[in-house]
C-alpha cells in the first residue's frame, strides 16, 4: 500500500506567554532573563498560607486573543486546579481552566497550496506558567528557578483540522502574527514565550475513524515542529504498514537525531484531579466589557494585508513577508512615512533586512535600529550621498551598532564621489592600466565595460557614483 | 487583683486608669506561662523573652506619646497555622518543624500595627485536622479543667491557653468546628465568623472554602473587640467580602426581647449527652425569661453535613497540602534514589496518620470517575444545606444548638477511632458548610465539673446578633464567676 492512501490529522495546543507587566496571581515582574529567583514573592513561591489574586489584565488579554480569533467569549468562567507533582510547580497544582474556558469556538484562516483554509479553534484558556529546572554543573542535581512561575499564559487549542506540516507552520505563523498585532504576547520562540504541543495521527483516507494520536510536547521552533510532524507521520504510517499499532503517548522531539522518543510509560498515566479553585472567585464578564475590548482591537494582519495590496498596490510576495510580522510591518509603515519612498523601504525589508535576520537567527522584534534610522538610510541614498551598495554596508553597521546613517557614512568616509573632475581622473587611470579591456570593449565585448567599472569601484572603495562612472567610461571609450 | 483573671476589656480599663502598666500585664502572663505550661502544654513556640522586650519598648513609646490605642501592649497568643514573620509557623507538623515564615498573615499585620504583643504560637491538631490536638506532631495539649482530658481541637492550644490564663485571648481557625468545639471543651468563648469576613491571607490552608480565622476569648465582649480588629476586606484575599465596617462592641446591648430563637430538634437527638441537653434547656429557659421567643423547628442538615464536610474538606486539603513536597521549605527525607522517591518518602515521613488519611480520602474523591459521585454531589448537598439555613433564618434571628455532643473526652479515648472522633464535629460542621457565623459560649458544667458549650448561629454577616445573644446570656449566668479550671491531675 502506498503513502498516498493515508492522510494525517494534526491538532496544535499553543502556549503563549502574555506580555503583562506582572504575573497572573501576584505583582512580581515577568521580565525574561533575570537572575534566578529574583522575581519571586511568597505567593509565586507558594509559601504556606498565601493566596492568589487574579490579574485583570490577563483576562483582558485573553479576551482580546479570543476576539481576534473569532471566538465566543464566555460570560461566566472560572479557574480550576490541575494537580500534579513536579519540582518546578511550587503549589503542586497549576491554576488553569478546565470546563469553562474564557474563549470558545473560534477559527483563523490560513493560506494553503489549495487556497484558503479555516482552522477551527476549540478553546482559549488562561493559566500560569511553571518555574524552570536548571542543571547544577557544580553540585550535580537540579536547581529550581521560580522567576517564570506564575507568568501568565494562554493556551490556544485548535481542532484537528490541520493535515500537513506546511499547514501547521502556516497556522502557527498566522496565530503568532495575530497575537503580536493585538499586542498580547511578544511570541519570542527562543525564549519559550510561544511554544506548542503537537498532536499527530494518521488514518487511511477511506477510514471514518481517527487514528491513535501521539503528542510532542513543548516544541519551540517552526523547523522542529515541521520536522517532528513529518517524522511522526512517517513513523506512524510505517507502523501501520507493518501491521502494528500506534501507541497513544507523549513524545519528546530530538532535534539532533531527528527522531521522537517516548517521554513516560503508561503506568504513569496522569490523573490531574481538576476541581474549581476555592481561593478564587468565579470570573463574570459584562457585555459592555467584552464589546469595549472588541471596539478597541487594533488592525489585524488580514486587514493590513488588504490595505497593502489594494491601497499601496504592493505585490503579494512583499506584502506577505512584511505583514507576517507586526514588527516588520510597523517598521515599514513608520519608515515609509518619514522618507516617502515606500518601495525602497519595502525592498530593504524583504531583501537585505530579512537576509540578515535569517543569518543572525534574529526575530524582527530584535532589530536594533529605529524606523527613523532606516528612513534616513533610504533618504541619503535617494539624495545621492551614498550609493546603494554603500547602503548595504551602512545597514550592516546599523545591525552592529545602530546610530544615524549620516554619522556612519561620515565616520567611515563613505560619502559618494560625484565630482565629475575627480571621477574623470579615476577613469583615465583605470583605462591607462587596463589596455587589454579597452581593446576588448572596442572589439565589441560589452562585458569589458563592467570589468572597468568594477576596477574603478574597487579603487574608490565603492564610493564613486556608479551612474557617473558608467557615463564617463562610455564617453572615454567612444573617443 | 489577679491580672491573669481579667478580661481584655477589663485590662484596657485598668490601663486607662493607670492601675496597671503594660509591663506588669506582660510579666503576669509570662509568669503564668512559666507556671502552667509544663502541665497544659498549649504552646509550640513561646515568645516570653521577646514579649517582655516588646512590652518595654511599647511602654516607652506610649510614655513618649509616640503611640496610643486601646490595644497597644495587650498580649495575645496565635494558633500555629497563622503566619508570623520571623517566627516558626509549624502547623504542629513535622513537615514544617523548621519553617520560619518570611511574611505576616493579614491578621498579624493588624495585630502588629496595634502594637499588641505576641506571647507565642499555640498548639493544634496537625494542619488543623483533628478535634483533640492529639494529632499534633509535638505534643498533646491538656484540658485545664482536667489534665487527663483533651482540650478539643483543632485550636486546642488556643482554647487551653486562654482557659488557663496563659494568654488573655488568642486567635484560632475554624474549618469544621476548630474554634467552637475547643472553646466549648475549655469553658471559653469562641467565634467562627461568616466565611469572607476575616482575611484568610497567611492562614495555612486546610480547606479553603471553609477556613476562617476567629477569636477565642474569656468573654463575649473580648470576642467583639478582637473581631473589630480582624474583620474587613483584604485585597490579598478575593474571597473576603468588601463591605462597610461594623462595630461589634456597640452591638452588645444585653437585650433580646422579642428576638426569635430557633432550636433545631435534630441537634438534640440521639448521641447528644443528656447533661449537655439539660444545660442547653436551662439556657433556653433563661432566654424565654429574658423575653426572647424560642421555638423548636426542623433543620434538616445534620444528617448530610458530616459526609459533605469530609468530602469537600478532604478534597481541598489533598490539593492544598500538595505544596509540602520535600522540595523547598518542608521536611525532606534523608535518602532517595529519584524524584518520585523524594516526594513519596518526604510526604510519608513528614505527615502524620490523620493528615495522610484525609489526603488519601481527598485524592480519591477528586479522581476521574469518582468526581461526580463524590465532590460534585457534595457541592450540591452543600447548596441544599445553605438553603435549609436560609429557610431557618427567614423565621428566626438566631439558631441555638449544643456546640459539641459531649464535654471534653479523655486523652486517648477516641484517638484510635477516626469515625468516632469525626462525630465530635457533628454540631459544628454544617455551619462551615453554610458559611454562616457561629459562636460557642459556656452555659454550665456537667456532674464532673466539665464545661458545657452552647452554639449560637446567625445568618451571614449577622455577627452582631449572635454576639448580643451570647452576651445577654453570659451576663445572666455569670459562668466565669462561678467556675474556674482546676488543673485536675
Describe the fold and architecture:
The complex is a heterodimer of chains A (479) and B (489). Chain A has helices at 56-68, 165-181, 222-241, 287-295, 301-310, 316-323, 326-339, 342-360, 371-382, 388-400, 405-412, 420-433, 435-442, 447-459, 466-478; strands spanning 6-17, 72-73, 76-77, 80-83, 93-96, 103-112, 115-128, 132-135, 142-145, 152-158, 194-204, 214-219, 249-254, 259-262, 275-276, 283-284. In chain A, the strands form 4 sheets. A 9-stranded mixed beta sheet of chain A has the order 2-6-7-10-1-11-12-13-14. In chain A, strands 5-4-15 form a 3-stranded antiparallel beta sheet, with no helix packed on it. Chain A has a two-stranded antiparallel sheet with strand order 3-16. Chain A is built from 15 helices and 16 strands. Chain A is elongated, with a radius of gyration of 29 Å. Chain A folds into 3 domains: 3-289, no CATH class; 299-412, no CATH class; 420-478, Orthogonal Bundle (Arc Repressor Mutant, subunit A), CATH 1.10.10. In chain A, strand 13 (249-254) and strand 14 (259-262) form a beta hairpin. In chain A, 40% of the residues lie in helices and 20% in strands. Chain A is α+β, with helices and mostly antiparallel strands and 479 residues long. Chain B contains 16 helices and 11 strands. Chain B has helices at 8-16, 22-40, 48-63, 106-113, 156-163, 180-186, 220-230, 274-289, 302-320, 339-350, 353-366, 372-395, 418-422, 429-434, 463-477, 479-482, and strands spanning 43-46, 75-79, 117-122, 169-174, 189-192, 212-217, 260-264, 293-297, 398-402, 438-445, 451-458. Chain B is α/β, with parallel strands linked by helices. In chain B, strand 7 (260-264), helix 8 and strand 8 form a beta-alpha-beta unit. Classes of the chains: A alpha+beta (479), B alpha/beta (489). Chains A and B meet through loops of A and helix 9 of B.
